[in-house]
């Protein structure tokens, strides 16, 4: 299907002075696409300063889910796939995990790692084949290890080796949510535009409230990071200051 972009001033009968484009499909259907000169960060900051929708809010019981804070993604300077958005990200994650344990609330850590053959990465691992390619994060490799700065309780915390973007996909995370009777997920980790977003969408699709502490998620590039925070904030969950998440855990009564 071919499409033609026209300024709204070129469309007969258009009412209004909005700065947008109209997508004219050959079937005669018209779809207005808003246009902005703002960056993804500026768009996010705008709705952060003046929210267009109320928050979902925390529910009765939260589960902290830390998405892939492993060396492949946290060791900047060692691995090309690594990134850092807030230098205090891992410190905040440790603080949330400590508070959760103190209240006997569940803490989950996920990581991606694959067989030597890479076959469990499936089609996702077929686009490239370099040392930095996803399927080459092997089980037991340094890339698969959690960052040394993390404070993980190997006895109490739940560790999940996931293969796909969402932490819910073909893992026992859903069963854990049911067992612990949690109705809220607090998500940290990375990347914001990848595995965090995928887990956010899967979580709300399962009926869970989603909280994303802004300082606790990261991405390699600014535009995808803030574009996805924008999407999460207006569609799927609450993007909140980490101070709000900390306060919720500190005040949680059960």
From TrEMBL:
One of its GO terms (molecular function) is hydrolase activity. The keyword Cell inner membrane does not apply. Transmembrane segments: none annotated. Residues 63-242 form the Isochorismatase-like domain. Keywords: Hydrolase. The keyword Hydrolase applies. PANTHER family: ISOCHORISMATASE HYDROLASE (PTHR43540:SF1), PEROXYUREIDOACRYLATE/UREIDOACRYLATE AMIDOHYDROLASE-RELATED (PTHR43540). This is Isochorismatase.
């Amino acid at each position: 299907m071919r499409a033609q972009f026209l300024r709204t001033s070129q469309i007969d009968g258009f009412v209004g002075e909005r700065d947008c484009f109209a997508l004219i499909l050959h079937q005669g259907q018209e779809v207005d696409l808003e246009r902005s000169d703002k960056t993804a960060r500026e768009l996010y900051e705008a709705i952060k300063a003046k929210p267009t929708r109320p928050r979902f809010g925390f529910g009765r019981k939260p589960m902290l889910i830390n998405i892939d804070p492993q060396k492949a993604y946290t060791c900047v300077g060692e691995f090309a796939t690594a990134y850092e958005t807030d230098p205090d990200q891992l410190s905040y994650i440790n603080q949330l995990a400590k508070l959760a344990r103190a209240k006997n609330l569940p803490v989950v850590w996920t990581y991606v790692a694959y067989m030597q053959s890479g076959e469990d990465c499936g089609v996702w691992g077929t686009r490239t084949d370099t040392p930095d390619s996803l399927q080459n994060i092997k089980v037991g490799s340094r890339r698969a290890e959690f960052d040394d700065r993390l404070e993980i309780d190997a006895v109490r915390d739940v560790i999940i080796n996931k293969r796909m973007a969402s932490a819910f996909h073909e893992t026992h995370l859903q069963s854990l949510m049911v067992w612990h009777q949690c109705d809220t997920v607090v998500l940290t980790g990375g990347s914001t535009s990848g595995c965090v977003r995928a887990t956010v969408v899967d979580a709300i699709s399962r009926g869970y409230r989603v909280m994303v502490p802004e300082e606790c998620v990261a991405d390699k590039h600014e535009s995808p990071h803030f574009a996805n925070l924008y999407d999460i904030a207006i569609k799927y969950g609450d993007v909140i200051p980490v101070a709000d998440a900390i306060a919720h855990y500190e005040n949680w009564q059960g």
